[in-house]
Amino acid sequence: MPDYRPRKTLFNPELRRRGIYILPNLLTTAALFSGFFAIVQAMNGKFEVAAVAIFIAMVFDGLDGRVARLTHTQSAFGAEYDSLSDMVSFGAAPALVVYVWALKGLGKLGWIAAFIYCAGAALRLARFNTNIEVVDKRYFQGLPSPAAAALVAGLVWVMIDNNWSGEDAAWYACVLTIFAGITMVSNLRYYSGKDINLRKSVPFMMVAAFALGFALVSSYPPGVLFALFLLYALSGYALGLADWIGRRKKIARSE
Description:
9 helices, Four Helix Bundle (Hemerythrin (Met), subunit A), mainly alpha, 2 strands
């Protein structure tokens, strides 16, 4: 007898009813557009605009996950889409921006440094997706790709703001780009901030600290943002050193 049961095809009404959550994925799309826009502006020689676009992509990327958790609209599609968006905005875009601005003049070393960063971002995102259920949520394993992108874009922004050309800053950009790429694939711990609950009350001093932070950033955005993300990148090495000293002390006590 012929089988008249509904088949799970593309035209099955059950599958057509499945959709995606618009709000978090709209924010992810905005982050993706900002990264793409940064690449286009770098190709047009507008490197300062490109650097700012990467920071804007960071804002949207930080919002999409928070919004998804607050509105209970997390999905497997959203997680995959976010990773692909991150690869463009925080992997390919910073590498291309810094290469066209400063590293191109270094020849083979320049594109190797840019590739190290790009490969580091890809490996970092792949490891994050596979280890998301087994790592401590309070810490990232390796420097997060948005922070690495902010480090590279911040250097471009602050150098241009101080009238440095890409040729003058080529070696600084090369060292920082390789540093960011390697740190992304390291096993260093970085505080994630995911244990902060926005729906709970906080001390008054916390609000005052946020207000002070906004005032500092608004006073000189390129310099303050670059300094903040440089300190964050170095914080992982500080935590690693503290862990190493703690292990050495435990070994000494046991002996």
